[in-house]
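Dear colleagues,

As part of the handover before I leave the project, I'm documenting each prediction I ran so the next person doesn't have to rerun anything. This entry is a single chain, and its sequence is reproduced below.
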Amino acid sequence: MIDAHVHVWRIGENGFSWPPPSLSAIHRHFSLQDWRKETAPVAAEGVILVQSQEDPADTAWLLELADRDPAVLGVVGWTNLEAPDAPQAIARLAGHSRLRGLRPMVQDCAADWYDNGALEPAWAAMEQAGLVLEALIRPAHLSSLNRLAARHPELAIVIDHAGKPDPRALEGWRRDLSSIAARPQVRCKLSGLLTELSPDMPAGAIEPIVSVLVDLFGTDRLMWGSDWPVLTLAGNYAGWLEQARRLVPPSLHDAVFGGTARATYGLTR
């Protein structure tokens, strides 16, 4: 099993700004050693480490961890894609063998963020480098992301956390996700759903969401991620993995729990 979405951080280091102290349950250091303890019962093969800070120091640290720890199969990092020197920064980062993608943190940006013409040089550089664009978005961004996918059909795109849908308002999300799912370069992560539930919602409220994801991406474009340690705000590792395995048809388990991540991030082991 490959966990396609794991975070680590050190409070006050590597450009740290999130999580805030108000999220006291996760406002502490989290390391790969902590992840190993959490996952010991499930024998995870390895992880994709995903940036959590909008700072180059965070990405540099994750790449250092990848150099030292064989459990890190790849890194999704960050750089300022709007900077004038973004293409050069992307090329430098792509020179690291473990860097697999970049993730601008768009979830709190304008709905049309991906339409910004100033970003075009960055998209072209990512295409040229063969890097994945990881999309941390909300449903309102799906249309703009779809237009980007149309302009850059060779740019591999992964939608994090299914685009963070609200289980109480799925119609528009389903419509827009269906449109972008028609583009073969787009993949989706089955991740981060429990933490989007309001406190009065049961864990089963995500079942209609998972059903849509399986229908749209299931054959070879859906991958599971824990979103650990953010996950611990709403559940636990073993419980989320068990729920996902129950909701995903057994015929898709090989792809969702490993194969899609291997193909998407070009993993060789």
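The two ends are 12 Å apart (CA to CA). The first strand starts at residue 2 and ends at 6.

All the best with the project,
I.
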